Amino acid sequence: MLDKVWDDHVVRSASGEPDLLYVDMHLIHEVTSPQAFEGLALSGRRVRRPDLSMATVDHGIPTTGRELGISDPLSKRQIGALEQNCAEHGITLFGVNDLRQGIVHIIGPEQGLTQPGMFIVCGDSHTSTHGAFGALAIGIGTSEVEHVLATQTLPRTKPGSLAITVDGDLPLGVTAKDLILGIIREIGVNGGYDTVIEYRGSAVEGLSMEGRMTVCNMSIEAGAKAGMIAPDATTYAYLEGRPYVQDGALWEEMVAFWETIPSDADAVFDREVVLDAADLAPFVSWGTNPSQVVEVNGEVPSPDTFDDPLERDSAARALEYMDLEAGTVITEIPIDRVFFGSCTNARIEDLRAGAEVIQGRTVHPDVDAMIVPGSGLVKLEAEEEGLDRIYKEAGFEWRDAGCSMCLAMNEDVLAPGERCASTSNRNFEGRQGRGGRTHLVSPQMAVAAAIAGHFVDIRDWR
Amino acid sequence: MKPISIVEGQMAPMPQANIDTDQIIPKQFLKGVVRTGLGPNLFHNWAHDEEGERVPDFVLNRPEYAEASVLVAGPNFGCGSSREHAVWSLMSAGFDAIMAPSFGPILENNCYQNGLLPVVVSDEAASKFAELAADPGNTVTIDLAEQRVSSGDYTASFDIDPHVKERLLNGWDQIDITLQSAADIEAYESARPAHRPTLGERALPDPAT
Question: Is B16 close to A143, i.e. CB distance below 8 A?
Fold first, then answer.
C-alpha cells in the first residue's frame, strides 16, 4: 500500500536523490505557519495551489468565552496572522467563528478532504491520523510548510515498511486507544524509526473510522514517519456524502480507484510484528513517554525490571517526575483533573462512549473534568444527541473545540503537581503544564476516573 | 543557508534517551511569528526553576559549558512534535550540530532545513562521546565531507543521506532546488485525476450562516 500511494505521487525521480512527491492536501494551522508565510513573502513567492490547502485555528484558541475575543495577545496575533495570510493567498480558512472550526486532524476527515490514496501533509506531528483512510500523511516542520506552499511538493526518500498485525476480537472494555498504547509498549517509542507502519489484521479491520484514526494518530509516538490502514467498506461508508467528497459518476470512479489501494496479498514488508488482540487490556500510562504503560489492573513497575540501562534510567526519572512509587496499584492512584479531548480521542464516537459510562453518576468532588469536542460539528452533533446534557449534569465542563490541554498552549493548563487522566497522546514532562502529571487513557477510562476520583478498571464498571 | 563543511567546538553531554521537543522548547514559546530570539528559551523547564531562576546544575547553565556548540544526546533525540522552534532555539543558543544514535523523524528533517547538523552515530560512539563530553576541556571535530567525527584519539564515522550531504556542503536552499523541476510539477498537475478533492471553486459556505 505504501508503494502504491508513493508511486502515484512521484513528480520526479532520479538516482541518488529523494523522490519529489506531489501533495494532494496541505493542512495549515496558526502555530507552525506564520514563519512559512513570512519566508514566502521575503522571497517574493506565492502559494502555488491555494485550492489544495485548508487552514483552521486549533492550537492556541480558547475553549471558553470565544465570543468575547481572544484575550491572550500572542495567540491573538498568531491567529490574526493566519487570517491575513489566508485572505492574501486565497486559502480556505475554517476560522474562529466558523462552525466547522476544530482540530485540524479532525476536520480534514470530517469534511471529506481526507481520502484514500492521497498524500497529505501538515505542520503537525499528528498528521499521521489521516493514514486511517489509506492515505500517506506526514507531519512536517515550518520550513517544509513553506516548501509545500511554494511548490505543492515535498522531496522524500521512501522509508521502510513495518506491518503490525493484530488479529482477534478486542476484549470488552479494550478500545482503539488501548490497542495503539499496547503496540507502542511492544515496539517502543523508537520502534517505528524510519518506517511507515501498516496496521492490519482482524482487530484493526473491525475498528470504526474513528477508532482507526486513534490508532494512526499515535504512529508518531512509536517514532514512525506515518501509519496507514487499508481502505474498505467502512472507509467508503464514512466518506460518502461528506461535503468535499465528489458524488455521482466521480464517486464511482473514486471507489474503483480506492479498491486498488490495499496491499496485495503477497506484499512483502521490511519488518513484521504480530500481536494477539486477546492479550490487550485497558492501559494507563505511568511514566513520561507513551511506551510506559501498564494494564489498569497492574502496578507501577520498578525501574529494575528494565534490562536496557537507558530505559531503566528513563523509568527512574519518570517515576520521580510522576511522584509515583514502584509497586503502587494503578487503581489506587487518585487524580485531580480529567482532560477528554485532542486529535486522538475527541470524535463523536469517543463522546458517545464516554457518556455511556456515566449512567446518572457525577464527577468526584475532588476532580475537575473537562470535555473538549474535536470540532464545532462534533460538538453540534453531540448536542443534538443530548450528550452535552449528560456530561454537564454529571459535572463535566463542556467546552468549545480546539487542541486545548493536549498541549496546553491556551488557558487550559495543569497546575504544578496536578495529576490528570487524559485521552490525549503525549505524557511528556510538562506537556499539559509545567509540573503537571499526565496519565494517558481511553475516553471510557477517563470518564470513569473522573467519577471515581482514581483510576478504575472499566471492565469492572457497573 | 550557510554551507557546512567542518564543525568544531565544545561538546555538552545530555545522554538520556527520548529527549522530546516539549523539553527542548516548551509550548509557551511557540506563540511567536518569527524564527529568531528563541535561544534563551532552550530547555526552559530544565534550565529554570518554577520561580524562573536558573538551575545551576543544569549542564547548559554550567559556566564551563558556556561555549558548547555540539550536543551529545541519547537515542530518539527530538521525538514528539513538529515544532521547528526546537531547531531555531538550539541554533540561536549556539549549537551547530547534535550527535545521537537516532533522531525524532520530523526534527531530523527540520535540522537539515536550517543547517543544524544531525550526526547519527552508533550507540557505542554516542556513549563514548558522552563520556568525553563530561570533560568540558574536550573538543570535537565533525568533518561532513569525510563523514567522520573525532575527539582526541577517538574517531567514529557517521551516515548521512548523500543528497542531504551535498545540499548541506553547498548551503543550497531546498525550494530553489525543487523549482528547477517546475516543468515536471506542471506535467504532473495536468495529469491529476478530476476526482481528487479541492477547496478552490467548491469552497462551501459555513453551515451556521
Answer: no
Query: What does the pLDDT average to over A183-205?
Result: 97
Query: Per the structure block, which three cell numbers stand in for A8?
Result: 502515484
Which of A423, A174, A396 lies closest to A297, judged by CA?
Answer: A174
Crossing angle between the packed helical segments A209-217 and A104-111, to the nearest 10 degrees: 150
Residue B202 has pLDDT above 90, yes or no: no
The size of chain B, in residues, is 209
Q: What pLDDT does residue B194 have?
A: 81
pTM, rounded to two decimals: 0.96
Q: Cβ(A136)–Cβ(A103) under 8 Å?
A: no
How many other CB atoms are found less than 10 A from the CB of residue A254? 24
Count of positions (residues) in chain A = 462
Pairwise CB contact (< 8 Å): B30 & A409: yes
Q: Is the pLDDT of residue B167 over 60?
A: yes
Instruction: List beta partners, residue A199.
Output: A164
**Cα distance between residue A286 and residue A301, in whole Å:** 8
CA distance B109 to chain A (A): 8
> In 3D, which of A210, A259, A193, A203 has the Cα closest to residue A231?
A259
Instruction: Copy the grid coordinates of residue B163.
Output: 543528497
Confidence of residue A127 (pLDDT cuts 50, 70, 90): very high
Contact between chains at A11 and B184 (C-beta distance less than 8 A):
yes
Chain B residue closest in CA terms to A315: B17
C-alpha cell at B34: 518569527
CA dihedral defined by A75, A77, A79, A85, rounded to 10 degrees?
A: -150
Rg (C-alpha) for chain B, rounded Å, is: 20
- The one-character DSSP state at A279 is G
Give the strand pairing for B6-14 and A160-167: unpaired
- Burial class of residue A393, CB neighbours in 10 A (0-12, 13-18, 19+): exposed
- Cα(A52)–Cα(A94) distance, integer angstroms: 14
* Nearest CA distance, A258 vs chain B (angstrom): 11
Neighbours of A460 (CB within 10 A): 11
Q: Is the dihedral of CA A282, A286, A290, A294 positive or negative?
A: negative
Identify the pLDDT of residue B34: 92
CA nearest neighbour of A407 among A103, A184, A37, A177: A103
CB-CB under 8 Å, A431 with B194 = no
A212 vs A234: CA distance, rounded Å: 10
